[in-house]
Amino acid sequence: MHFKYVVVGAGLAGLTIAERIASEKGEKVLVVEKRGHIGGNVYDSYNDDGILIHNYGPHIFHTNDREVYKYLSRFTKWNDFWHRVLTMVDGNPIPMPITLETINKLYHCSMTPDEMKQFIAERAVPIEEIKTSRDVALSKVGEEIYQKFFESYTKKQWGIDPAEIDTSVISRIPLRFNRDTRYFTDKYQGMPRYGYTKMCESMADSDKIKLLLNTDFEEIRDDITYDTLIYTGPADEYFHYKHGKLKYRSVGFVFETHDCESYQDAPVVNYPNDYDYTRITEFKKMTWQENKKTTILKEFPGEGDEPYYPFPTPDCKAQFALYQEEMKKEKNVYFLGRLAEYRYYNMDAAVRRALDLYEEKLR
Ligand SMILES: Cc1cc2nc3c(=O)[nH]c(=O)nc-3n(C[C@H](O)[C@H](O)[C@H](O)COP(=O)(O)OP(=O)(O)OC[C@H]3O[C@@H](n4cnc5c(N)ncnc54)[C@H](O)[C@@H]3O)c2cc1C
Question: Residue 357: how many CB atoms within 10 A of its CB?
């Protein structure tokens, strides 16, 4: 069977491109998705207790990209949401990122902004050439804060020492010499009012978009032909692993529902130094739902097979570069999104990539 446009993957990248092709170009497009639902990793659903959960981990929309915000706002209204994170250090919940509040709570003192600046400057380790995530953290906040907040957390998250990880993981440590404890400072932040799945359904709501769920592209690859393929699945899979399997860090998600209205003091609490999980999310604190019970999610890095985070080491990047060379040889195929580009993208960046690809190549 022949199609003009085929999109593999119904995540945010695939849906954005499919929506553009259908509504801007007015062309039909086939979207092939191996899971039984659309939305990719932003998929959310109601559990048995009627609480909206994020099935693949907590997703908070935030961006400075006005165009992306406006684009997604066509498909959803937003609830105001300013994300807050606490980190359990020495048994105390301390606000993250590092602000004046963090330092004062951590050291049980009441520094002024200037005193905090001096305090940090005295501790920051001068490092000539910043090469790793450890270098980034030490040069910014010094040994003690690095150990309490970043070292064990990063080890737990990646299974290796921050000294072996490139600078992309701890690329920036926002230091705020004020009391602004918001996790993100982007101009646009929020939660889709009726959830991410509803937003994605609205993106796919066109008689020009044909969704084929529960179908691995590999199953139908030899049975279809197309003029243009937009592929958002894993790069190594597309090339039948000819340069080996790309390494990902997976996460095991354990949901628990508790018989209480509130479980913790913030939407997310990090556990850098204790337990096997990295963080606990309480969904009601993101969605403002009212319910006598509450559902939380514990994340156990390294468990499961789902490819969540591309591995941030030079070896893995070099291996992916071999696949990039193969991609250049493919005709009429565009590789898009976090799996095909072997890159961690936030939601706004995934949508931005898709909008740009449409404008530059498909329009
Ligand atoms: C735990 C976690 C938390 C996150 N939190 C945030 C956050 O708070 N804020 C934020 O902005 N971003 C967050 N993200 C990032 C966000 O999930 C991504 O930006 C977004 O999902 C990228 O969309 P995508 O379409 O590129 O990939 P995906 O959502 O992964 O979509 C790819 C789709 O392709 C399908 N597919 C793969 N292979 C095949 C195949 N062979 N055949 C058919 N279909 C296939 C997959 O099933 C999937 O549905 C988080 C990511 C993770 C893992």
Answer: 20
CA of 2 to the centre of ligand 1 (A): 27
Domains assigned to the chain: 2-38+204-247+309-362 (3.40.50.720), 92-164 (no CATH)
Provide the b/e sequence for 303-340 (b: ≥16 CB within 10 Å). Answer: eeeebbbbbbbeebbebbeebeeebeeeeebbbbbbbb
Ligand 1 within 6 A of 218 CB?
yes
Largest CA distance in the chain: 70
* Residue pLDDT tens, the chain, 363 long: 999 999 999 999 999 999 999 999 999 999 999 999 999 999 999 999 999 999 999 999 999 999 999 999 999 999 999 999 999 999 999 999 999 999 999 999 999 999 999 999 999 999 999 999 999 999 999 999 999 999 999 999 999 999 999 888 887 778 899 999 999 999 999 999 999 999 999 999 999 999 999 999 999 999 999 999 999 999 999 999 999 999 999 999 999 999 999 999 999 999 999 999 999 999 999 999 999 999 999 999 998 889 999 988 889 999 999 999 999 999 999 999 999 999 999 999 999 999 999 999 998
Q: Which of 284, 249, 358 is nearest to 52 (CA)?
A: 284
Element spanning 5, H or E: strand 2-8
β pairing state of 188-192 and 61-63: antiparallel
Q: What is the pTM of this model?
A: 0.96
Contact yes or no for 99/176 (Cβ under 8 A): yes
The answer to whether the CB of 176 is under 6 A from ligand 1 is no
Q: How far is the CA of 240 from the centre of ligand 1 (A)?
A: 21
Q: Please tell me if the CB atom of residue 347 comes closer than 6 angstroms to any atom of ligand 1.
A: yes
Q: What angle do CA 233, 238, 243 make, to 5 degrees?
A: 120
CA 107 to ligand 1 centroid distance, Å: 39
Does residue 95's CB lie within 6 angstroms of at least one atom of ligand 1?
no
